[in-house]
Amino acid sequence: MTRRPTYRLGAYVALAVVAVVGGLALARPELVALAAPSALLVGLGLVAGRRLDVAVSVTVDRQRGVEGQDVELLATLTAVGHDARMEVAVVLPDGLAAVDDATIVGLKAGESRSLRIPVRCERWGAYRLGGVRLRVVDPYGMFNATAATRPTTTLKVYPQAPVLRRLLAPLETQLQLGTVRSRHRATGVELAELRPYAPGDDARAISWRATARRQELWVAERHPERSGDVVLVLDTLAEARAGAAGTLDLAVRAATVLLSGHLARRDRVGVVGLGGTVTWLRPGMGAVQRYRLVDALLTSRILPTAVWAGAAGIPVRALPPQALVIGLSPLLDERVVRAFADLAGRSVDMALVELDPDAFLPPVEGESDRLARRLWALERDNVRRRFLRRGVAVAAWQAHESFETPLARLEAFRRTTRRASA
Questions:
Q1: pLDDT of 225-268, one tens digit each?
Q2: Parallel/antiparallel/unpaired status of strands 349-355 and 324-329
Q3: Domain range holding 83?
Q4: Is 343 in the same domain as 387?
Q5: Which helix (H) or strand (E) segment is 388 a member of?
Q6: Closest Cα to residue 395, out of 259, 405, 231?
Q7: Is residue 171 part of a domain?
Q8: Domain check: are 196 and 138 in the same one?
Q9: CA-CA distances (angstroms) from residue 107 to 101, 112, 211, 296, 421?
Q10: Per-residue pLDDT tens for 279-305?
Q11: What is the pTM of this model?
Q12: Among 113, 247, 268, 348, which one is most buried in terms of CB atoms within 10 A?
């Protein structure tokens, strides 16, 4: 700690000097006696303020939180050597906010005290916290010392993930049990069709109602309920941003909502980040996979690059056969557009959620800006049409909308294309 004198020390020293000099000059001993209390306080302050040390340890009550929740920092303070009065303020990164202001604490020599400091999680992310700023004053107020501790712990703040009432269903399912109706026929719940009995059919599949009506054995074929593979592809190459908000925030929130919904449906879910470097997690299921995926999303950053492999840089293990690929991108960079088009050309079951960048653009200030904005809108519409002609569903999502809105548009387009191809 760096020790500095306070204004009180200067005032008492000046008072003592003036009283002594005045008493000697005027031959008034009472003035010299008046300087004694001030001189005594200065002496006591010099002794007490010789060592202003405080031991600090900071812990957090949990390692994970959710946007809007409060977590508690537990700061343990111990006065070393002498009594001390201190002002404690927690140092927080952007995205976290202290609920209360700085706290003033008085400690005896060797005494310890624990403070609970509530912290509000305002934005998703992975944060280093535990830094504390201290201002320690000796008992007589003659000296103070300031110090700041470094962050010692990590807090991961997850985006809020509301429950979706509808999710996209993959065209082809896997062999694992789930809640998605398969197009194949096997043991299941939902009726597929009725057909005449053939030797070798399971007797439990006989529809006795149809048999009684037709006077011959008929069998009910059903659709089994299976799970699917879902891969979320995030565009981390370019974004539109205004202040603290941007299209990357929309992508992370959308991915969190989607992976939570699909994992609850017993689907296998993976993540691919298309940025300066291709990052990926292979599909999996369960609570552990959810934490892995969300932790990977929290570290998402925009990484522009001049050298980029595109879709060819995605490992084969990250895109299993028959997986449903959901792209989350503002479609601002032509290289990302080509990468998604390359994936669509591989006959991948694909859907695109366009993260609408209009809300993050500066306001139009003139006729030239208005014309440029219209041309840019036409170019973006042309990009959407390119995907629609390939049979890839594209739906725009704006920040003020519920995420179920673009999902409903995607499902409507996919249903139409399935009927047209049938």
A1: 777 889 999 988 888 888 778 888 899 999 999 999 889 888 88
A2: parallel
A3: 53-158
A4: yes
A5: helix 367-389
A6: 405
A7: no
A8: no
A9: 19, 7, 89, 43, 78
A10: 888 998 888 898 899 988 888 877 666
A11: 0.75
A12: 247
